[in-house]
């Protein structure tokens, strides 16, 4: 059917009623309004004194669209919206009850209320995003009505999960979810972790801006068997093959918890460095290597800002050591050279990693844990590893895994992902 899918990129609609009648007559099922040309704001003459006043036609198009779109409700199943406000989402929900997919990735609103989703319970896909961020109004309970949902993406929503992740309890009702994206994941309490265990069909999970580790996002138990937490919950999902942790703070025990997620085949990690960056990098390396038997693809994201900060530190430290060597006695010069050599500060792009560097050998891991408890001078055990060497170490330790180290500005981390392919 020629009109089954209609895309409006670089096009503009003047008559929404006529447009909607044409779509209905041709039984259009998919309507894509992304990158559609919107009317410009133009002055219109006043009927009283002939003067001009501003009339924002950019807002008016949404009202006209909502009044007309109900004509397509019999056949329209998927709708991708362009820049719009909450009024458009609410109007669409009231007019098109049979939609199975609704995507709005450029919402122009400071607040987000999800009350409207209760009117379109046939949804199998829902993606909501704002370029400037939104504040959640109310809670997420209406999402529990979307029992047929397979793909859910809620990003750039501030305080999405709540203080302890209690707002994620709705996930226990969405047992058919196959793909899930959540942003602003401050913490995951027991309620959230229990809800995750219900997602037995979940294949892909992306979490943004959160924290994970034994003391970060985990529930500490008296013994390891009773340990609960995000990664422990995810390890119980048999279908989960792709995990993306974007701008996550990596804490102690991350590698041990990640090692339990043996179903993972594709892993993306972009860590943030709130404190102890060398320890975080060690844990990322160790965790990935522990999954070397199952991982097919491992991507480690590093921001330009982090690399620049490390470069400035290395340059400053090298200059300090050279200054000390030039103005010191012979004994002090030897000591300065020893410290400089121990720090191993290269001039190329590098990351600080706690020594000894993780490898495929379990003995090396045990040795690293013992030294972590006994060694007092943390900096003396930090090695600055060039990215090229880091890639080589990981590739050697994970021979069956495609390893990628990707550099990007921080602003691009939210767009960085792994392509959705059949695994």
TrEMBL record:
<feature type="region of interest" description="Disordered">
    <location>
        <begin position="321"/>
        <end position="379"/>
    </location>
</feature>
<feature type="region of interest" description="Disordered">
    <location>
        <begin position="36"/>
        <end position="58"/>
    </location>
</feature>
<dbReference type="InterPro" id="IPR032675">
    <property type="entry name" value="LRR_dom_sf"/>
</dbReference>
<dbReference type="InterPro" id="IPR052283">
    <property type="entry name" value="GenomicStab_NeuMorph_Reg"/>
</dbReference>
<feature type="compositionally biased region" description="Acidic residues">
    <location>
        <begin position="366"/>
        <end position="376"/>
    </location>
</feature>
<protein>
    <submittedName>
        <fullName>Uncharacterized protein</fullName>
    </submittedName>
</protein>
